Fold each of these.
Amino acid sequence: MAVTITDTSGIHVDIHRQNGIALEATFSCAQNELLALVGPSGSGKTTLLRTIAGLEGQDGKSIISCRGDIWQDSTAGVFLSPQQRRTGLVFQDYALFPHMSALQNVLAAMEHIPGPLRHERASEILSRVHLGGLEDRYPKELSGGQKQRVSLARALARDPSVLLLDEPFSAVDQVTRNKLYRELSELRQRVETPIILVTHNLEEATLLADKLCILHHGRTLQEGSVTDVMARPASALVARLIDMRNLFRGTFLDRATPDDPYRIQWGDHVIEVKSASDIPVGKEVDWVVPGSGVILHRQDRPSNGDRENPLRGHVSNLLRIGDTVRVSLDVDDRAETRIIFQLSSRVANRNNLSQGAEISVSLAADSIHIMQPD
Amino acid sequence: MDWQSLNVSLQLAVWTTVILFPVSVYLSRALAWRQFAGKSVIEALVALPLVLPPTVLGFYLLIMLGGDSVVGQFYEQIIGQPLVFSFEGILIASLIFNLPFAVQPLQRSFESISGDLREASWCSGLSAWQTFWRIELPLAWPGALSSIVLTFAHTLGEFGVVLMVGGNIPGETKTLAINIYDRVQAFDDSTAATMSAFLLIFSFIAIVVVQGLGSRAGKWR
Amino acid sequence: MTLRVPTICIAIYLALSCFTARADVLIAAASNIMAPLDEIIVQFEEQTGEQVKVSYGASGVLSRQIMRGAPFEILLSADRWHIEILSSQGVGILADEDYATGRLALFLNGASPISQDISILTSFYELGKIRKFAIANPEHAPYGRAARDVLVKLGIWDLAKTTLVMGENANQAARFAASASTDGGLVPHSLTVLPESVFSGNTVIVPADMHAPLHQRMALLDRASSAARLFYDFLRSNNARSVFLRYGYAVPEQQG
């Protein structure tokens, strides 16, 4: 469980717990970074967040350090209380003090600031989250979005070393949610605090986060930048968790010559891949291709690219969502080898795509990602 | 109107409420938020005076506090007077038989405070004491008021247990309620009527005042 | 903020309570002696300036309280027996003597002026005219025991048993007897002597030979203060005795 702390400005978490909700989680979030903890319900995301806040998790082996301060170290017997840690926790259901106005709620978190300065600073924070003028309203007089902003303001008022957001947008409607996304992004430009966002909404995570940390049954499966994780999931499980559809099994073949690309045997097809890895020949591998790597062969305009990993089959399903069309192609007319990808409506129409149509596609070799089975 | 017995009644009611309030706050908080072995036993014990006939309570209290008991003898050695038939004796009895009235409304109030709020308070940097004083207690105030009013009113009205444990000692354990009974027996209906009316009006005013305070505290609900 | 004023008031009230001293003479007395004793106390208080506080009740209840440590300084029992019990139980008694002898009276509700013959009760019972009859509880009150003696002597105890309404003490029995819900009772005679009494006119004095004599004895307990001793002596004085007499009690021969 050796953890080398190289960066002392962010937060580092390393938790191993067997009792209760088992956790095996390791990740870090640096200054100015937003890390999204993503996973299905029951994956322990909220438990992790609460452990970072110091609300639970005194048992087990753990090290949590933030900005160079050790918050929790089971081997040294250190466990700082929530009051001693400087966390700003935004609860899923806001947890605003109902008997206090918005201003008073924010003031409550400012015990560390000398009295005369508090009021001014609290007003400033409230206007920063676009709640100026609403200081004297009570929680019951505020909308969901406004309550969330007060909750955020209160968390910020703490001058936290890390901001912890627990599914903060799940209880508001889509329009408000979009507004709050924008406001959060704006906020990040002015606040350097590392932010850890817990969400089960992958879209939200990819929209807001710099880093993703995929959580499953309390284990962190992969931690990395958004693009990294989304393009190169660490395993088939992660791929499934990030909702990558085109996940298949194959056998890793040797390359014909050192100049040739690597190859995977996939049923009757041989798929060429560009990513190099030291995978033993003959090994069963999982491989995945993102929808963006699936290129439709244009009937009216054939190109050279059509020769790269060509596959044909019939369209088993065509789903129009707004301006895009989601195409399900059963390669060789088999459901087990179904490839899903998206096209704009315009392109779909131009190619006369319809259910049952026969089409062919190419898989871009450099977009294919190989994973070793667990 | 016998001011002395009114004074005994008021003293008993006020002392009981003042002593029992912090005790019941502590107890009801623990019962509301903590899990521990024997919790249901304690809850049952707290509720017991509600269902027991006053004579049963009085009987066991006499055994526990009387001259033959450990408590009684200890008290007598220190103070020089027996515990039963004294104000202190009926005060102890009063603290016990008022437990459910003091604890239960408070417990329910504390239970209705979401755990999230306390945690939000801790994460905002407020210590356990600050959280109690500024978040928990204000939110539990309706239950606290009920607790206080019920304890006070119930003590003013208690008859059987006070009589058994305290006897009928003027200036010491002769409460107004007992005095009314006394006066009726003595064919002194006019005094009994005066005292009864007084108790009725006094209790009514006390409840109205306290409820008035309560409604002012709840503007944010 | 609205709590500040009431809180201060309560604090002051409680603080004051710690300073009220209890300097009164504290005595226990059988309930039947209430009327004359209240008068005697008034006289005593006027004469000496000392305050006397009384707890009235059944002799049995009061003596048991004393045995359990109740802080009474004098007990005026309705009989001798309870004083003897106290002394046999080791309660310290400085002095004791008879202070009065009581009588029982029969009261029949709604009966017109009747003859002074106690056997009228027997007739009423045999005629089924008595559904509820009040006496003091024979277990606790000497007047109740005497009442039972009377009923037994009249031969109607078995008849009367199911009709009995028992008062905790003699005065409560009288209260029951006076209420419209009973048909009468056996009450302390002293309650019937005054013209303004509710029992006036409808009572029969019970012959003394129908029950064990109600020699009422008082005891000065060893925890008595000097003021209590003063009162004890006052109870033996002529002033006190004349009050007892006025209420229909007999008083012992002057003991000098």
Note: Chain A is about 25% helix and 30% strand.
Amino acid sequence: MNDVIIIRGGRVIDPATGTDAVRTVVLRDGAVAEVAERVEAPTGATILDATGRWVTPGFIDLHVHLREPGQEYKETVATGARAAVAGGFTSIVCMPNTKPVNDTLAVTELILARAATAGLARVYPCGCISKGSSGEELAEYGELQAGGCVALSDDGKPVMSSSLMRRALEYARTFGLPLTVHEEDLALVGKGVMHEGASSTRLGLKGIPGQAEEVMVLRDIALAELTGGRVHIAHASSAGTVRAVREAKRRGLPVTAEVTPHHLSLTDEDVAASGYSTDFKMSPPLRSRADVAACVEGLADGTLDCIATDHAPHSPVEKDVEFDAALNGIIGLETAFPVCLALVKAGTLTERRLVEALTASPARAFGLPGGTLARGAPADVAILDPAAEWLCTAGSFHSKSTNSPWKGRRLTGRCTHAIVGGRLVHAGGKES
Amino acid sequence: MIGRQKHCIALEDFSREELLQVLDLAVSMKEVLLRPIKKVPSLRGKSVVNLFFEASTRTRSSFEIAAKVLSADALNWTSASSSVTKGETLVDTARNLEAMRPDVLVIRHSASGAPRLVAEHVGCAVVSAGDGAHEHPSQGLLDCFTIREKLGTLEGKTLAIVGDISHSRVARSDLHAFTKLGTTVRLCGPPTMIPAGVEGLGCTVTHDLRTAVEGADAVVMLRIQHERIGDPLIPNTREYSRLWGLNGKKAREWLKPSALILHPGPINRGVELSPDVADGPHSVILDQVQNGVAVRMAILYLLAGGDPAEAKA
């Protein structure tokens, strides 16, 4: 009987229950049955030896682009979900900027059907804030939620109309849905393609100041106060954003925020060092060292609730071009853990907070199941080898795309097993 | 090769010695250019492709003449549209040209970094003839050549660069080259035209024209592009000209008698330079054009595989 999985010998880190000790985890009938020091294994149980590894709740990523429907050459629901579990993510929220966008039940249902067929990570669709993501009219939140959407976003684009944003926040309260907001003042962004600073000046590329993000964050915090609607700041990247969110939380406003592994670890200087590599081009752009330090500090102190990858697959068609012409975005599901684990090694983040930011915090921000190994929780588990060293190459990825700034770098830390609903869906790293 | 450089894409990558290698060789090249019969067989059998994605008369002609004086075959490939609108990617275009086996690919493109992208995909030497707001290395070298020729040295001299620094690839190449050769560089323009963090590249910044040009040994006046008006970086050309343009009165009162005035061209007469200054005693603008051919001959010669020792003989 394969309904029981026993994970032995691993260090169980589950911030939601305050657990950090070597324990045995018992998964039965798709749920966590027990986390205990000593367990009698029933005959026929699958036994996984996790000695020397971490056993954590499966990671939850609130910000992923799966590209299906419409751009299946970049990623599909199935390949994205495969990449997710390879990176330790057992639940992912997929952004609605597909072709067509997810502003109707039909698209939501298609994504969920594909996810069910794939049978890998749990996929939670995010619906559009506005019809067609055009920033003009409200989408049908009631229908989207009934179909399975857990949040709303026009991600990829800011909601430039303050009036529409106000109404969206008010209307979404009916359903308790959070709005994931991509914060950029498009007039301040202009034709900018990277962070504005000494590096953009050296490269002769048009810059985008951090304030392009900050002014929109400040607006939406003000609107959260006005409406009581839930604002979730997508991919925080500037020191000003961290400061604004910290103040909003201090005042008790319904604001949460996420930060990507790349905004915690790479700077605009890396863009210059890469020699115009478009694997370093994304929105918001990689910012200054001071911004990165502020984001790390914000994540450590809980101002920024969670780590989200903004996994954004693109093919060479979009990336093997001039920097100005390249599309924004990089993949992130399969490198998030080692990249963020480096912060622990650098002493700027604790192990507990790292795991929390990948599990309990995102679950809480969107009210999703999982994120804990408490008895009765979904049997979603990641087993991680924090000492595994590997060379990241284009061949390392399960994603259909390879637009990653970590290609060619040695990384430490890797997911060795992922379990979703009590089923082992990933075992062993793809050899590179 | 220019020193260790296989390409000529960014003077930021050049060492002082590599810059001097080009400048010294350009002296010999200028002699060739001044002969009654302007033709030497140095690059016979070699070919140079000029791949221009942006309109250019001066720079393209200059590279073409430089190639022809050295007996290389020159082909001009002009594309009014960018790769995005044309449907063929820049990399594909470059690979197609590479298949014709040129020795040097000269490229001008509106996107910063485009020559570098091309260089990563082709085997021949790549020379940037200007990319976006990044660099214009042959212009930087010809500015160095012109001032060195007139003043004897660049060491200990002061250069002012005035205008829209943010959008200027010439300013960046000048800044990198002159600072490496011992010249103090002052940048000047309205704050809307000074790029973030530029002081970190080893120059000073002022918004006052007089402060910038007083005591300077040379002044590079940059062209004000009409599309910047209403961008909105400046209110209009009238106010710009009053505050940052150089006219005869300011030149007489503020400039050293020996100061040189350079301009990368084409000039907006009456905006950054009044006609009496553009054509006056300080101006070395036409020397720049002539020296540009000599400098480009040196670049092509070195990158197409010529022997520096032989060229001097």
Note: DSSP finds 14 helices and 20 strands in chain A.
